[in-house]
Write a structure and sequence with these properties.
This protein is of the alpha+beta class. The chain has a single domain (3-211), classed as Rossmann fold, CATH 3.40.50. 47% of the residues lie in helices and 25% in strands. The chain is built from 7 helices and 5 strands, in the order ββααβαββαααα. The chain has a 5-stranded mixed beta sheet with strand order 1-2-3-5-4. β1 and β2 (19-32) form a beta hairpin. α2 (46-64) runs parallel beside α3 (81-91) and α2 (46-64) runs antiparallel to α4. The longest helix is centred in the last third of the chain and has 30 residues, at 161-190.
């Protein structure tokens, strides 16, 4: 798993067991746990691997972000009980979370960005970190058995009015965009004549003809 950790924040020495330790925290952590297209085709346990990657990414961010830090992660879905539960844990660990889909991403892709701003600190979220580590251990065992974990927090937490409304509305908006994009791609593939001719093909043809001339006429 690759993390991009930027802007280190040096923490003073702390004494533990007669030794002094230096602690480093970061103001910005960026990660990508989205599911590649080829993984969806070639891997049977895609969802289980995605869950584990997302859990480990969140644990890293909660452990090593400094207070008021920002965590940015590219993810693939937000509305399963498992992912929504993990988002809820981030929701109570940061001042603000945002799910965004910039125009640089394909509108037909399920990928989106999770932006968590204003980290409250590892001391505040220490219990959440321990819970995530516990879930990771259980998930590793259950994956070996071929089982899965469906949720990591009670549904009553996910149905918190403000949190659930934002997640549901945002996800529905992205789904509508994805469906429209897929329908448009399907229509253009079925009706190639409907694609507007911008003249690019004609210009490329003329350029090819000029390059293929044996002798150029210089005036």
């Amino acid at each position: 798993m690759a993390f991009n950790s930027l802007v280190p924040n040096f923490n003073p020495m702390k004494k533990k067991d007669n030794y002094y330790y230096y602690y480093y925290y970061y103001y910005l952590i960026i990660d990508d746990v989205s599911i590649p297209y080829e993984a969806v085709i070639n891997t049977r346990n895609v969802e289980a691997k995605y869950k584990e990657k997302f859990l480990r990414s969140c644990r890293y961010a909660l452990k090593y972000l400094g207070i008021r830090g920002t965590y940015v992660c590219k993810i693939s879905e937000t509305l399963t009980r498992f992912t929504a539960g993990l988002l809820y844990l981030l929701y109570v660990s940061f001042d603000k979370i945002t799910i965004a889909k910039p125009f640089t991403l394909s509108p037909a892709s399920p990928d989106r960005f999770l932006v968590c701003q204003g980290y409250l600190g590892s001391q505040v979220s220490s219990g959440i970190i321990e819970h995530i580590e516990h879930v990771i251990r259980i998930l590793e065992v259950e994956n070996i058995k071929g089982n899965d974990i469906m949720e990591i927090v009670p549904l009553s937490c996910i149905f918190c009015r403000t949190f659930f409304k934002y997640i549901a509305d945002t996800t529905q908006r992205f789904i509508d965009r994805e469906i429209q994009a897929i329908q448009k791609i399907q229509y253009m593939n079925s009706n190639p004549s409907s694609i507007p001719n911008t003249g690019i093909n004609l210009r490329l043809q003329k350029a090819t003809e000029r390059l293929s001339i044996n002798k150029r006429i210089i005036k």
